[in-house]
Amino acid sequence: MTDIPVEPIQLFEYSPKLIPKEQIPDDVGEILWKNYGRQVNVEFPSPKTNRKWQITSKGWAGYIPLTPDFAFHLHPKVDIQNLFGMLEYAYNLESFRFIEGLMDCRSLKEFYESLARILALRVLDRGRKGYYHAYQLQKGPLPYVRGKLDIRQNITKPWDINLECHYEEYTSDIEDNQILAWTLNHILRSGICTEKSLPVVRQAHRNLRGFTSSIPFYPRDCVGRLYNRLNLDYQSMHAICKFFLEHNGPSHQVGDKTILPFLVNMARLYEKFVAEWLKLHLPSEYSIQSQERIAFGQGQKVHFDIDLVLYENANKTARCVMDTKYKVPTRPSSEDLKQILAYAKIKRCNEAILIYPESLDEPLNEFIEDTWVRSLNFSLDGDLDMAGEKFIQELFDSMGSPADPNLRQ
């Protein structure tokens, strides 16, 4: 599969789409329902749907290629340029100067393909200079002594003329290169790239496949790595790899091909974007901790992952807890309130904030027991930096000041 259909079926976030029964074969609808239930809600033709398919995007953006003739394009409600801006912050892409070749993209598919091409070209450029090598610890039988003899192992097999040794080997089959190869393989299997980018992606993958082991990697493997002057350029390539590995959807079979769609969880992206934007723009006396894990209970087996905790740097105390909510309701739900209040109690702070991408019809500004709970919005409309500055102003203008007894009534 080298391309997705010219006219994929268009879906928009949280907007049910009715499609004539004859337009989608039953087996295609079944694949969508079975494999992508997290991303889309599928209602089969029935009297309830007027004998039509009813398909609703559940807050994801991207592409789902199902067969050579059918694909679904999931549109975000966010403007495409602001979506790119969110991705820049969430994945630190701007600091690596990828954006020059991406800002002319008119769709998420073009963005995906352009970023894949950038990765492949960087891999090929590194190949011309020579891929990074490093010493790797090895263990195995050798016909001669190399490194350190494993005495215990050798005396258990006195008949074996080979010697069990521990030694270091200078090799390019290391994680730095294996991550690149694994990611390029995922990109090729996505079915999204066209002939515009496929040749260069294939060439880069072939170059790496010739000397790297096929080992699976996860997004977390692409961060927190050690770099030096000899492999510093790998940092930007691994940043792109994290992006692709994090947004591969569940795989499915089409003939003899395994297809990996490209899907962005908009709620998770919003959370990461807000966290990274705040890290860069908060006043210097504050810092933000994202996805802070709090374990408790016997054996520390129960835990919470708090979206955001705002700390005062001077005394290292938590000033408030914050939780991002991408889907905009009329008012905060009771479940959201219970969650944020639990976070505040665990962190022993008396301020809690629910963050939405739009203003609520019924905003929240109440004391609940001893915790001040507010709803604020970090808008995704218009200029993202201006929206962030407005959010920070509203956050700090009244922080810690609800001594007004009216708020307690």
Brief descriptors of the model:
32% helix, alpha+beta, disordered N terminus, 4 domains, globular, 409 residues, single chain, six-stranded mixed sheet, four-stranded mixed sheet
Structural account:
The protein contains ten helices and 18 strands. It is an alpha+beta fold. It has four domains: 84 residues, no CATH class; 128 residues, no CATH class; 38 residues, no CATH class; 127 residues, 3-Layer(aba) Sandwich (Trna Endonuclease, Chain: A, domain 1), CATH 3.40.1350. β13 and β14 form a beta hairpin. α3 runs antiparallel to α7. The longest helix has 22 residues.
Which percent band covers the strand fraction? 25-35%
Average pLDDT across residues?
85
- Total count of domains: 4
**What is the count of DSSP helices, taking H or I runs of 4+ residues?**
10
Protein structure class: alpha+beta
Describe this structure in a few short sentences.
The protein is an alpha+beta fold.
